[in-house]
Amino acid sequence: MEINRIGLLTSGGDAPGMNSAIRAVVRTACINKLETLGIRRGYNGLINGDVTEMGYRDVRGLNHMGGTILYTARSPEFQTEEGVAKAAKTCKYLGIDAIICIGGDGTFRGALDLAKHGIPSVGIPATIDNDIACTNYTIGFDTACNTAIEAIDKLRDTMHSHERCSLVEVMGHRAGHLAVYVGISVGANAILVPERPYDFEKDIADRIRKSRIQGRTHFDIIVAEGVGDIHQIANHIREETGLDPRVTILGHVQRGGTPTARDRVTAARMGRHAVELLLEGRFNRVVSIKDGHLQDFDIEEALSMKKDLQETMVETARILSTG
Ligand code: F6P
Fold this sequence. Notes:
Layout: E1 5-10, H1 18-31, E2 35-39, H2 42-48, E3 51-54, H3 81-94, E4 98-103, H4 105-116, E5 121-125, H5 141-162, E6 165-170, H6 177-186, E7 190-192, H7 200-213, E8 219-224, H8 230-241, E9 246-249, H9 261-279, E10 285-290, E11 293-298, H10 299-304, H11 311-320
Parallel strand pairs: 1-2, 1-4, 4-5, 5-10, 6-8, 6-9, 7-8
Antiparallel strand pairs: 2-3, 10-11
Helix pairs in contact: 1-9, 2-3, 5-6, 6-11
The structure holds 6-O-phosphono-beta-D-fructofuranose.
Residues 13, 104, 127-129, 171-173, 225, 255 line the site of 6-O-phosphono-beta-D-fructofuranose.
């Protein structure tokens, strides 16, 4: 099957670096004489034919911009059989031969549905959660880590002055990758992640006690959003330790901002690779990066894979955070 026109969309939660991926796809396509139709608002745009032609110059000056110029959405309609059929029909009507979709696992599930309707695709992993199993790294993770670290460094100043206990919730959906990286980076006293159930006495109270004995008067605890109600944990700390904790939920600020070099370069490499896969006739793949090298996996296989936290990271966090 020959590819002449590709459709390009971003879907799910946005991630810094998505724009660099868009730029890389459009430019690689242009150089190889392929047309690109940008699809606005994720799969909703595919259902409604909300598209724009994108050429080499349309993606100038994008690398420093957070967010996604194509807009993004989570599309309930696309989760229905009728929605997918409508989207496939739009592709055929617009002459879209294949889709490149940038996003997380929900986005790739959508791509798989389209493949079942005869529309081939390639997925580029972009989510601040870094929770895609087939790849070591997802676009946006590094920028989100740095945004969270910058905020927590500021919080630390005031927590130190007031000798308080700070609990900070970071995003991550059901995964703790962001929490572990951020926690290690800020030297947190405790890092709570959904993948490793915690024991209040051992993992929180005891660590605070030991730190106090060593003269520490402020405490930083990083909680991944998937762990549960951070206010309940704060109340428990208040009751058990007599400290006066403060809760900060960093929220969507973690999704914005100028992408770091790592996110820009990863996006550039992955974007180029995605187009080259289509040119080689290798369809329904997810681009991946492992040990610094680009790879790709069958979408179905990629979606069936499971990703755990790296045990050495968890261990490093535990060893370095006791005092
Ligand atoms: O997947 C990215 C993410 O930011 C998660 O970390 C978070 O759980 C979710 O999206 C929030 O989604 P929304 O922007 O729809 O509230």
